[in-house]
């Protein structure tokens, strides 16, 4: 289903109405840190001294420790691991902004407008509450017994929101109708089915698990058959709706995302009860796909939550031996279906920077059964005894043939060589080729040639990209892209471009900070008199170039444009390398205690900036005069006249400051 774009005007409205200080304060303890500035411990890296600054009036934040920064939308994206659209929708719901959607051609897209989306979410919230209440009724005794037999008590059921759908045909339907939902809305929600006599409850006589998006909104349900009279499938899920797409949701991610982000590890299990068992056993990063195989869209979600974007991190280890790029661990049943699922997962492995593993219990038990029979520690031990996914894939491939015959060995080599050739880490391919030769009982050179031929036949030839392609400006981007072209240089940090003891650099930095933070305090005549090359530090001159290109600094100085809007306009046209520097400068603390002091500072900084500019101009003219032949009297006199003019400007500036 097409995902419509949110109208630009609506995105702007979300930015304007959202209170950055309120949003950040939900995650960070803030304290006043100067004029229009607040400070706290950064939520994105460990620190003891606060270096995380926000400026509510400008709507921007920046951490001087890790370099992260942005506006209220980017903060919600990063703290909640959301896409841009999800973050905008979350803020729109919080601050009551009505969203409308368009496709890339400007027409209305298939994504529901925000009013419709809100109605669908409300219907699911009511349904979840109703199902949870029903789990305590006498009719749900069969459901409670099912949970108890699998080691889940009332507290566990409540934690995961497990409920019970009564056997009646219109139990939930009646509740929703009483709450004002129309029949078209009920159909659109996926909570009911349509028959010849109208709509009826989709889930009847079943245990139900709420399926939530990453923000915690319930968007669908998974239901388990309990009764012998129920001839439906063992598990029945919500159908595809405007808010529920099974290929884009992972059960348990809403409660696992913080641990996944912190540990850089995700454990992919196969069912709702497996997720519950894993979490209760202490594996807090477990998730599961919902009624479909783990696929490309799931990979995107997991990568976003894990921060799986730095290809070099996969080569470095934490103190506990884990890759800094993280780990994706798949658990599968030991049967043929589980092996097939593992091979499908191997295909998706190429999309991860993280190292991928598989954990299969020797007797084929899933995490839920393992916890019942052997306890919590056994589940934790299962995860820790993981082995690389590509090793599992190779062994699975060769286990299907008789290796005691030449024909079997050749067949196994033909099956396994392409698997080895697809191992993302090139350094591991020769080693696993050597291991494969031992497993097959074949000459090492023969196996290496087969792997090489398999790589060439699949178009790799050693030249394929070994890591997923990254979006421009993505964290960890650097080096070369998959096409071999140089990627953009890393974004500049203020500490890298302006030495702390450089007095000129400090004046230029603070001048830009005043312009970006409080342009309304600037003297318009002084601003207008600044030359296009007013800055000596190249990176700061780049910032000034962007501000000039925006063309609205004087409007902001005259009070005709709000400072936050001016900053937005500057950031809109800034390139990827200079934009973070602008955000950092816009959040820089200035040496002023109040607005009066800031106004005085702004004046003195502009005077000093102008004087520095005049001094550089005077120096250039002096050098030019020294290189000019005195016999060229016309040229000589022209330069002398300009020198006199520059000296006069400098004397006037100094006299005005006395």
Please tag this protein with its features.
alpha+beta; 6-stranded mixed sheet; 5-stranded antiparallel sheet; 19 strands; globular
How would you describe what is shown here?
The chain has 658 residues and is an alpha+beta fold. Strands 14-16-15-17-18-19 form a 6-stranded mixed sheet, sandwiched between helices. A 5-stranded antiparallel sheet has the order 2-3-4-5-6. α18 (428-440) crosses α19. The radius of gyration is 31 Å and the shape is globular. The N and C termini lie far apart (69 Å).
How many helical elements? 28
What radius of gyration results from the CA coordinates?
A: 31 Å
Q: Average pLDDT across residues?
A: 82
Q: What share of the residues does DSSP label as strand, in percent?
A: 5-15%
Major pleated sheet: 6 strands, mixed
Could you tell me the number of beta strands?
A: 19
Which helices and strands occur, and which strands form pairs?
Blueprint: E1 5-6, H1 8-17, H2 20-25, E2 31-32, E3 38-40, E4 52-55, E5 60-63, E6 69-71, H3 72-80, H4 84-95, E7 101-102, H5 114-134, H6 141-149, H7 154-160, E8 163-165, H8 171-178, H9 183-189, E9 192-195, E10 198-201, E11 206-212, E12 218-225, E13 235-237, E14 250-251, H10 253-263, E15 265-269, H11 272-280, E16 286-289, H12 296-306, E17 327-331, H13 336-349, E18 355-359, H14 367-374, H15 376-384, E19 387-388, H16 389-398, H17 406-421, H18 428-440, H19 444-457, H20 494-497, H21 503-517, H22 524-529, H23 538-550, H24 553-557, H25 563-573, H26 579-586, H27 595-627, H28 633-657
Parallel strand pairs: 15-16, 15-17, 17-18
Antiparallel strand pairs: 1-7, 2-3, 3-4, 4-5, 5-6, 8-11, 9-10, 11-12, 12-13, 14-16, 18-19
């Amino acid at each position: 289903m097409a995902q419509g774009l949110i109208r630009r005007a609506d995105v702007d409205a979300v930015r304007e109405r959202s209170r950055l200080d309120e949003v950040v304060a939900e995650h960070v303890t803030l304290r006043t840190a100067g004029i229009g500035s607040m400070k706290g411990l950064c939520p994105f890296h460990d620190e003891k001294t606060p270096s995380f600054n926000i400026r509510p009036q400008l709507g921007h934040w920046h951490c001087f420790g890790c370099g992260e920064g942005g506006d209220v939308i980017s903060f919600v994206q990063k703290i909640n691991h959301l896409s841009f659209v999800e973050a905008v929708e979350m803020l729109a719901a919080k601050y009551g902004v009505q969203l409308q959607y368009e496709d890339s051609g400007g027409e209305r897209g298939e994504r529901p407008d925000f009013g419709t989306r809100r109605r669908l979410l409300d219907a699911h919230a009511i349904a979840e509450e109703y199902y949870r209440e029903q789990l305590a009724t006498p009719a749900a005794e069969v459901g409670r017994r099912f949970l108890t037999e699998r080691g889940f008590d009332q507290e566990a059921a409540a934690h995961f929101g497990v409920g019970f759908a009564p056997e009646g045909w219109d139990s939930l339907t009646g509740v929703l109708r009483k709450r004002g939902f129309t029949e078209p809305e009920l159909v659109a929600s996926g909570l009911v089915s349509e028959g010849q006599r109208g709509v009826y409850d989709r889930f009847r006589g079943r245990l139900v698990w709420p399926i939530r998006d990453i923000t915690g909104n319930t968007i669908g349900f998974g239901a388990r058959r309990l009764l012998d009279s129920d001839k439906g499938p063992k598990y029945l899920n919500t159908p595809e709706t405007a808010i529920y797409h099974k290929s884009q949701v992972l059960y348990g991610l809403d409660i696992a995302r913080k641990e996944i982000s912190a540990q850089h590890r995700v454990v992919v299990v196969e069912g709702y009860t497996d997720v519950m068992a894993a979490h209760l056993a202490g594996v807090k990063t477990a998730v599961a796909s919902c009624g479909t195989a783990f696929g490309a869209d799931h990979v995107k979600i997991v990568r976003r939550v894990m921060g799986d974007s730095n290809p070099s991190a996969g080569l470095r280890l934490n103190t506990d031996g884990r890759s800094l790029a993280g780990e994706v661990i798949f658990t599968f049943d030991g049967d043929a279906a589980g092996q097939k699922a593992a091979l499908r997962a191997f295909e998706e492995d190429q999309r991860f920077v993280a190292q991928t593993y598989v954990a299969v219990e020797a007797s084929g038990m899933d995490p839920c059964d393992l916890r019942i029979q052997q306890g919590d520690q056994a589940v934790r031990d299962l995860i820790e005894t993981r082995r690389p996914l590509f090793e599992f894939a190779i062994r699975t491939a060769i286990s299907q043939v008789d290796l005691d015959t030449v024909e079997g060995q050749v067949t196994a080599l033909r099956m396994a060589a392409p698997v080895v050739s697809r191992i993302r880490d090139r350094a591991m391919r020769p080693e696993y080729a050597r291991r494969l030769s031992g497993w097959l009982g074949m000459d090492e050179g023969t196996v290496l040639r087969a792997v090489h031929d398999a790589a060439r036949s699949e178009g790799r030839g050693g030249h394929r990209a070994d890591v997923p392609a990254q979006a421009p400006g993505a964290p960890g981007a650097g080096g070369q892209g998959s096409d071999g072209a140089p990627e953009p240089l890393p974004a500049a940090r203020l500490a890298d471009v302006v030495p702390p003891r450089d007095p000129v650099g400090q004046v230029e930095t603070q001048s830009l900070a005043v312009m970006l933070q409080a342009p309304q305090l600037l003297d318009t005549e002084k601003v207008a008199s600044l030359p296009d090359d007013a800055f000596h530090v190249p990176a700061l001159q780049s910032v000034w170039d962007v501000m000039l290109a925006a063309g609205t600094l004087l409007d902001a100085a005259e009070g005709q444009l709000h400072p936050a809007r001016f900053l937005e306009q500057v950031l809109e046209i800034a390139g990827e390398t200079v934009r973070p520097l602008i955000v950092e400068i816009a959040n820089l603390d200035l040496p002023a205690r109040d607005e009066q002091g800031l106004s005085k500072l702004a004046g003195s900084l502009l005077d000093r900036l102008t004087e520095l500019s005049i001094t550089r101009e005077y120096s250039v003219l002096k050098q030019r005069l020294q290189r000019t032949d005195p016999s060229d009297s016309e040229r000589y006199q022209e330069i002398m006249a300009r020198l006199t003019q520059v000296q006069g400007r400098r004397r006037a500036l100094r006299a005005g400051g006395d």
